[in-house]
Amino acid sequence: MNRRHFLTTAGACVAAMGVPVHAAAAPTNGKKLVFVFAPGGWDITRVFADEFDNTNVDMEAFASRQSIGDLTWVSHPLRPAVDNFMATFGSQTLVLNGVMVRSIAHEICTMLMMTGTTSGLQADWPAAIAASDRDRFTLPHLVVNGPSFPGDQGVAVSRTGVNGQLEDLISGAVEQYSGTPVELPDRVAENVVDRYLQRRARARADSVRSSQEAALTGAYRDSMEKLMALKDLRYTMDFTASALLEDQAQVAVDALSLGVSRCVTLAYAGNAGAFGWDTHADNDNLQLPLWEGLFQGLTQLMVLLQSTPGESSPTLADETLVVVLSEMGRTPLLNGLNGKDHWPYTSAMLVGPGITGGRVVGAFDGSFYGRGVDPASGDVSDKAQTFSAEAVGATLLTYADVDPDPYVSGVAAITGVLS
């Protein structure tokens, strides 16, 4: 089997991988999103939650309160990247404090934070957003690293693969997975075969005899078109990335700037593996470098966005929202191992256009439980709606011009944080 034969028979599989129609047209409101996930549950009192006045919270030694206008954060002399990020991008930064995830189990909290449900069957926020414009992009939601719940929107979601499988498929290196020698056609013959297969797929889709046949042949035709679009990218984009957030950021910016994707998901766990932020022991010494590394990577991501032309704006930063989140928080007090255990209240950070940046929304009470937030204003109110993961999701969907009702019915978006 040569490379072209493999890719041809893979056409239907590519559709299942999430390869809808590629087009250069802008999405509904021109807004793109990059999700950055911190797996394991971060200690938000080390950056987002200023709890110095709360005697029920163990704050970090040598930490201090810093602020720019209405944006307040926790500073530490060994985390200069956090201070530098806030000083540079603070006016575009919105911190969401006191978000409730209703669980302290990693898998359940991840599902809740990303989908608003524990079923595992519902599409997550980036998949839902990308699926709303899936006909406009080759890989609507590209998952470079981190969790993904495609739900019923699997056609809109593609993973690069932890070992570069997507890149190998596009480049043809996947042939090396087999020990059988392969003789490839030359470039001229390959182009002839490509054009023939595309014509046959289009002709077949135009001569159907039933609605079911139309759906199947149409999907195959579209898969072939997307397959060719991906093939054309092999000389202009590399889909491989390391665990470093800086490397993942480059893939994300390339995918957004080339019109390949509307949403991209990244993750950062440092060198600590799948649950890098899960610090049940030695919390401060382990979390400190994770926060520093995360904000170094976020700074690089923002610099890349600012230095890359946008599709309908001067820069990609003008049309891309960066969403930074983790599945849970950590307990307010240190345990006997100087660690912190799981806590069902957390924070998230949004950076980019279309939000009321330069402030903190949400808060904690004396027991370090999240307080309610008024959806219309974003103001803290104990009589207002619970500030839940579902509310965050509804807000992101609304931001992207996607109706949140099918995903989080009965939960109001916090429209007060949208500009």
SSE blueprint:
Layout (H helix, E strand, L loop, with lengths): L2 H7 L1 H7 L14 E7 L25 E5 L2 E5 L4 H10 L3 E8 L5 H10 L9 H7 L9 E3 L13 E3 L5 H7 L15 H19 L5 H22 L12 H13 L5 E5 L15 H24 L13 E7 L2 E2 L11 E2 L1 E7 L7 E3 L27 H11 L5 H4 L11
Parallel strand pairs: 1-7, 1-8, 4-12, 5-6, 5-7
Antiparallel strand pairs: 2-3, 4-11, 8-11, 9-10
Structural write-up:
With 419 residues, the chain is an alpha/beta fold. It has two domains: 1-30 and 164-238, no CATH class; 32-160 and 241-417, Alkaline Phosphatase, subunit A, CATH 3.40.720. Helices cover 34% and strands 14% of the residues. It is built from twelve helices and twelve strands. The strands form three sheets. Strands 6-5-7-1-8-11-4-12 form an eight-stranded mixed beta sheet. Strands 2-3 form a two-stranded antiparallel ribbon. The longest helix has 24 residues, at 283-306. The termini are far apart. Residues 1-27 have low confidence and may be disordered.
Keywords summarizing the entry:
419 residues, alpha/beta, Alkaline Phosphatase, subunit A, 2 domains, globular
SSE order:
HHEEEHEHHEEHHHHEHEEEEEHH
- Number of DSSP-assigned strands: 12
Walk across the major sheet and give the strand order. Answer: 6-5-7-1-8-11-4-12
Please give the CATH architecture of the largest domain.
3-Layer(aba) Sandwich
The amount of helix comes to 25-40%
Strand proportion = 5-15%
CATH C-level name of the largest domain: Alpha Beta
> What is the fold named in CATH at topology level of the largest domain?
Alkaline Phosphatase, subunit A
Find the structural class using helix and strand composition: alpha/beta
CATH superfamily of the largest domain: Alkaline Phosphatase, subunit A
Oligomer: single chain
